[in-house]
């Protein structure tokens, strides 16, 4: 520092010196803070490293324990495998020993047989083969003749059954014709709720539905009786919904019946539309469609009427195609020929006349109307449609299994079955069993031997096949029983 003469010290540098000291002091403080944070971070890093080291050691110990356990399991499995191998080796040795003993036994027996028969094994084998060849040729000749006979019979049967086979393809399930529907109740107490106080509920139900509700002593069961199947089905749905809901009173009955009636109406329309699609017929008046669908609830002689109409339509269409006739009018006529059965409870007259008038009023062509009126011969058939409709109706209703036979015919057939079997000598008793599906013939053992019993069975089966017409098969069983009785006194 230079000091001029006659002057004091130079004070212009003092502020600069103070600022530098403050900066140095601030830097020192910052360095201290950074060093402290660095030491804290080092401590945390050490703690974290220690924690990670401990976790890694735990994982390592766990994995070592798992490996040791698996090594023990593998060792145990290896011991079991070795034990099993030893057992198999022992069994194999036992099997070899047994096979050797069996071969030795066979050899000894062959030697004994050769000494007893005076023939060697090769000679006996050759003799046996010659005898077998002779028997096989004889049986083959008998079999060939039997096959030829069966082939001729099968050819004739198939030739006669071509048309029947077409009809059988359309076979449907039989249903029972009835005017009563049985309705199951969840409990016996429900009968009282259906009857109501002083019978008001049952009176309201019968008045609204037009169906008789029969309540008797049958447990948890009531019956719905009505000649109109659509009304009966509507009443069944009404009663089903009332029972499920639990609220049964006159107002509720009317409301539920109206809803059920609409539901049955929709079901009839859908059934009619489905029938039109199935029969490939279109352009029909809605009232005809609804009435046609209502026949799904109608049964005639055990045959569902709507199913019968569909069968008739298919048969008529196939016959029309074979004859080169336009099939659509024929199918339409056959599909509608029994529609009058849905109206006979409302209109007097035969179902053919009623159905023809109904079809005429709803826009059907004169050919279709005439076919409906003539399908039972009440009107002389004058068109191809009428003739084919009549033939299809007869085929569908008359094919085997289409309609249930009457009780009188059924009883006569069973009586004839017993008469055929009882006509043979030595027969003691005859029983027709399983609804005529089996005939049980009891013969006297002192008069009929085993061969005679077989002859009686074949002869009865032949007579039944020739004389009776029946669905399916009838089994003929001849029983010959011998009894030895002794009395000890």
Outline the fold blueprint.
Layout: H1 14-117, H2 121-160, H3 162-169, E1 180-184, H4 190-195, H5 200-209, E2 212-215, E3 221-225, H6 229-245, H7 250-279, H8 286-294, E4 299-300, E5 303-304, H9 305-323, H10 327-336, H11 351-361, H12 366-374, H13 384-398, H14 407-422, E6 427-433, E7 438-443, H15 450-467, E8 475-480
Parallel strand pairs: 7-8
Antiparallel strand pairs: 1-3, 2-3, 4-5, 6-7
Helix pairs in contact: 5-7, 6-7, 7-8, 9-10, 9-13, 10-12, 10-13, 11-12, 12-13
How would you concisely characterize the structure shown here?
This protein is mainly α and 489 residues long. The protein has helices at residues 14-117, 121-160, 162-169, 190-195, 200-209, 229-245, 250-279, 286-294, 305-323, 327-336, 351-361, 366-374, 384-398, 407-422, 450-467, and strands at residues 180-184, 212-215, 221-225, 299-300, 303-304, 427-433, 438-443, 475-480.
Structural write-up:
The chain is mostly helical and 489 residues long. The chain has 15 helices and 8 strands. The protein has helices spanning 14-117, 121-160, 162-169, 190-195, 200-209, 229-245, 250-279, 286-294, 305-323, 327-336, 351-361, 366-374, 384-398, 407-422, 450-467; strands at 180-184, 212-215, 221-225, 299-300, 303-304, 427-433, 438-443, 475-480. The strands form 3 sheets. Strands 1-3-2 form a 3-stranded antiparallel β-sheet, covered by helices on one side. Strands 6-7-8 form a 3-stranded mixed β-sheet, covered by helices on one side. Strand 4 and strand 5 form a beta hairpin.
């Amino acid at each position: 520092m230079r000091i001029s003469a006659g002057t004091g010290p130079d004070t212009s540098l003092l502020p600069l010196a103070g600022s530098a000291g403050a900066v140095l002091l601030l830097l020192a403080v910052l360095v201290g803070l950074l060093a402290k944070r660095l030491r804290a971070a080092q401590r945390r890093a050490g703690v974290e490293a220690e924690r990670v080291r401990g976790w890694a050691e735990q994982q390592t110990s766990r994995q070592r324990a798992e490996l040791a356990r698996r090594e023990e399991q593998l060792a145990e499995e290896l011991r079991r495998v070795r034990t099993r191998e030893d057992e198999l080796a022992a069994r194999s040795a036992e099997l070899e020993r047994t096979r050797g003993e069996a071969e030795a036994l066979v050899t000894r027996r062959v030697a004994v047989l050769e000494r007893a028969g005076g023939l060697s094994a090769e000679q006996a084998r050759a003799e046996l083969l010659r005898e077998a060849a002779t028997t096989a040729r004889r049986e083959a000749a008998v079999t060939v003749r039997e096959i030829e006979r069966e082939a001729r019979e099968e050819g004739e049967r198939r030739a006669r059954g071509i048309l029947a086979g077409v009809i059988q393809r359309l076979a449907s399930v039989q249903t029972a014709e009835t005017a009563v529907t049985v309705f199951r109740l969840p409990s016996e107490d429900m009968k009282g709720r259906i009857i109501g106080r002083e019978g008001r509920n049952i009176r309201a139900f019968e008045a609204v539905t037009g169906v008789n509700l029969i309540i008797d002593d049958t447990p948890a069961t009531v019956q719905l009786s009505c000649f109109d199947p659509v009304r009966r089905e509507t009443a069944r749905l009404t009663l089903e919904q009332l029972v499920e809901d639990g609220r049964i009173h006159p107002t509720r009955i009317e409301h539920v019946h109206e809803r059920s009636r609409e539901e049955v109406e929709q079901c009839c329309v859908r059934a009619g539309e489905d029938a039109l699609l199935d029969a490939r017929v279109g352009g029909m008046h809605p009232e005809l469609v609804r009435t046609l669908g209502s026949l799904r609830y109608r049964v005639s002689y055990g045959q569902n009427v709507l199913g019968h109409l569909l069968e008739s339509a298919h048969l008529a269409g196939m016959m029309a195609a074979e004859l080169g006739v336009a099939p659509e009018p024929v199918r339409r006529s056959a599909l509608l020929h029994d529609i009058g059965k849905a109206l006979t409870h409302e209109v007097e007259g035969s179902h053919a006349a009623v159905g023809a008038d109904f079809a005429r009023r709803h826009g059907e062509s004169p050919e279709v109307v005439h076919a409906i009126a003539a399908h039972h011969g009440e009107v002389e058939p004058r068109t191809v449609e009428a003739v084919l409709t009549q033939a299809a109706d007869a085929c569908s209703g008359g094919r085997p299994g289409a309609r249930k036979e009457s009780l009188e015919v059924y009883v006569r057939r069973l009586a004839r079955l017993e008469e055929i079997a009882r006509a043979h000598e030595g027969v003691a008793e005859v029983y027709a069993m399983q609804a005529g599906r089996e005939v049980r013939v009891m013969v006297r053992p002192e008069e009929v031997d085993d061969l005679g019993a077989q002859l009686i069975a074949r002869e009865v089966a032949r007579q039944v096949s020739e004389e009776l017409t029946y669905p399916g098969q009838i089994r003929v069983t001849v029983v010959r029983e011998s009894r030895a009785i002794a009395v000890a006194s």
